[in-house]
Amino acid sequence: MKAWKNNIRSVVPYVPGEQPKSSNTIKLNTNENPYPPSPKVMELCSRIDDLRLYPDPEAGKLVEALAAYKGLDRNQVFVGVGSDDVLAMAFLTFFNSDRPILFPDITYSFYDVWAELFRIPYETRPLDDNFFIRKEDYYGENGGVIFPNPNAPTGVLMPLSEICDILDHNQDVIVIVDEAYIDFGGVSALSLLSSYENLLIVQTFSKSRSMAGMRIGYAMGSPELIKAMNDVKYSFNSYTMNRPSILLGAASIEDEEYFQETTQKIIHTREWVKEELRDLGFVFPDSAANFIFASHKTVPAKEIFEAARAENIYVRYFARERIDNYLRITIGTDEEMKALIDFLKRFLNSAR
Ligand code: PMP
After folding, report:
1. Nearest CA owner, ligand 1 atom 6
2. Poorest-pLDDT segment among 13-17, 156-160, 259-263, 306-310
3. Which end of the chain is more exposed for a tag (fewer CB within 10 A), N or C?
């Protein structure tokens, strides 16, 4: 073997959901929002100029808009290229202990990839049989804690009291709560920031703000945490966020009415889809996200996944231990979900 091969960093990358080439699909596999961004965002989009200039390295407009919206100081907000970028930066900044960081066994499958990439020791803690995070599993010495709330891909929401309990037991490390899906009915840990300076909350514009294509994510925490993240960011790339993302992100924040209307629509759709799925013989943990993680009582998930795909209906299937009989179904429009339910009725009838 050539000696230089020893110097290559070898990693097993995260595998994102499939992005079908054809537009003739019902796409319920990557938790995108079925509605367009706010009309204010689309209107501003056509007027963006100065692309020949570098963007503001501080992304000031967006940071200020977010800080005002969340009732924070601007030194409590960090923005990045989607929450994946923000989370990766947070792993690099905060998880530098020899002790293992902790996260659930069933969770966002990027966490172990970042831990491997940055050579951070980690251990996973199993969810209970109902897919709930057991808070007691996060007591004891560790190098940091991270979990999504609601968890992904289960959709299960942890009450604030349990998050407080995990924070109370982890005062010597950074605790990251990944709130990618919090706007679909959950209660954010934002109110805890004033009590816990080791808490970092990460959110995204990709789901509830219909802007996955713009790549906007952000973290909120104490000024000390945000400064540490900025120091790492500026040691890596000064211009992580592009000019349109900064401006369009700020425009989205201004349209609260549209944000409320579209997230409420998705919640409403999710609730009737739960009833339909139950009637069809599916079981699932109750979801507070824009997806449902469902298993059929008799028909294997993989068969349903493949049959749906053959009809251009895309849902997500994970061939992983404990969850390989589940489908993660993103909530689309009412029409899309009716098409899915119609397909399931036909397919399950023929499978009986
Ligand atoms: N966290 C969780 C739990 C997610 O499911 C996702 C979506 N893949 C992300 C973070 C990253 O989303 P984005 O980079 O689009 O903000």
Report:
1. 180
2. 13-17
3. N
